[in-house]
């Protein structure tokens, strides 16, 4: 069943009819965003289209966010290495590395 509302007590995040304008430029108009707890999401699009802006607005709570949710914005970091790996593959492999580090930390 599709719904535009988060279920009470849920850790899901739902933004309905979000419109964002920055410097007179419409970045999002009447957007619906659903983030299911435990899901992994990517925000992709051409440069200058508002991806970082929407994340900053969420992290600074300039867009309303449930008070029981903690948001942390980690700015982009650039590492230049010789690699044929795509950006998507790099992100997916980084999750595997994080899981491995977490498992190793539990053993300590």
From TrEMBL:
InterPro entries: ABC_transporter-like_ATP-bd (IPR003439), ABCF (IPR050611), P-loop_NTPase (IPR027417). Residues 30-75 form the ABC transporter domain. The keyword Transferase does not apply. Keywords: Repeat. One of its GO terms (molecular function) is ATP binding. This is ABC transporter F family member 4. It comes from Lygus hesperus. The lineage of its organism: Eukaryota, Metazoa, Ecdysozoa, Arthropoda, Hexapoda.
């Amino acid at each position: 069943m599709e719904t535009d509302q988060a279920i009470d007590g849920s850790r899901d995040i739902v933004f309905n009819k979000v419109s964002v304008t920055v410097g007179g430029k419409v970045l999002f108009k009447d957007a619906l965003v659903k983030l299911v707890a435990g899901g992994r999401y990517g925000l992709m699009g051409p440069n200058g289209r508002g991806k970082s802006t929407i994340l900053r607005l969420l992290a600074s709570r300039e867009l309303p966010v449930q008070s029981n949710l903690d948001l942390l914005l980690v700015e982009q970091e650039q590492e230049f290495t010789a690699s044929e790996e795509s950006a998507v593959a790099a992100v997916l492999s980084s999750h595997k590395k994080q899981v491995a580090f977490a498992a190793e930390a539990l053993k300590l």
